[in-house]
Amino acid sequence: AAGVIQSPRHLIKEKRETATLKCYPIPRHDTVYWYQQGPGQDPQFLISFYEKMQSDKGSIPDRFSAQQFSDYHSELNMSSLELGDSALYFCASSLDGGYNEQFFGPGTRLTVL
Amino acid sequence: AQSVTQPDIHITVSEGASLELRCNYSYGATPYLFWYVQSPGQGLQLLLKYFSGDTLVQGIKGFEAEFKRSQSSFNLRKPSVHWSDAAEYFCAVGGTGNQFYFGTGTSLTVIP
Questions:
Q1: Do A99 and B32 lie within an 8 Å CB cutoff?
Q2: Segments of chain B with pLDDT less than 50
Q3: pLDDT-derived band of residue A25, with 50, 70 and 90 as boundaries?
Q4: For a tag site, which of A48, B40, B86, B104 has the least CB within 10 Å?
Q5: Per the CB < 8 Å rule, is A55 touching B97?
């Protein structure tokens, strides 16, 4: 069965650079969620999109932005990277934007040097 | 506000022994509860979920969990642990809107 795809899987950036993470949800899933998991931490919700509109917002820094495109894939744009942004970034997808099971991707490990 | 507490940061069990991982939640209505497992450097895999109905939920890999509303708990159990079960376990609750709230995780070590 198709799963959530995230790219790249690993990314190394310098401070103050920008990064773009991509998420391709399971086919027919219309809702995408982004989470940030710092070392030894639990995943923290950043933002979600339902039918290409932002549906919920968590602890996403102002330096970050995200969007969901017409094909339902989503991109997380991160600017002015800081050392503290080093984390595992998960994307999850679900159907109908409600309290359905969220299927998680493998994550993108971002390292900021 | 919604929240999840996993009181045990780290648990060590012997292979073949039984396991119980604790999860307590705070939520204003009937919660949607989940247990996920994460191997090092890997994504989150759903073990089981509770939406409604039978309070004892069976999941994959021989895991089960019991929803106890009176105790606001959703503890994960397995009767006999295998070495491959060593991982990080996260309890999560579906909150208002679409986001999940995760507990801080319990790290499971299995000794031979």
A1: yes
A2: none
A3: very high
A4: B40
A5: yes
Residue with tokens 């933002």: A47
Cα(A59)–Cα(B44) distance, rounded to whole angstroms?
20
Do A100 and A87 meet the contact criterion of CB atoms below 8 Å apart? no
Q: What is the pLDDT of residues A62-79, one digit of tens each?
A: 999 999 999 999 999 999
> Which residues of chain B does A44 touch, with a Cβ-Cβ cutoff of 8 Å?
102
Among candidates B23, B42, B31, B101, which has minimal Cα distance to A35?
Answer: B101
What are the DSSP E strand ranges found in chain B?
3-5, 10-14, 19-21, 24-26, 32-38, 44-50, 56-58, 64-68, 73-78, 87-94, 100-102, 106-111
pLDDT of B97? 58
What does the pLDDT look like over A27-69, one tens digit per residue? 989 999 999 998 888 889 899 998 999 988 888 999 999 999 9
Instruction: Collect all residues of chain A within an 8 Å Cβ-Cβ radius of residue B45.
Output: 104
Nearest Cα residue in chain A from B35: A101
Residue B39 CB neighbour total at 10 angstroms: 12
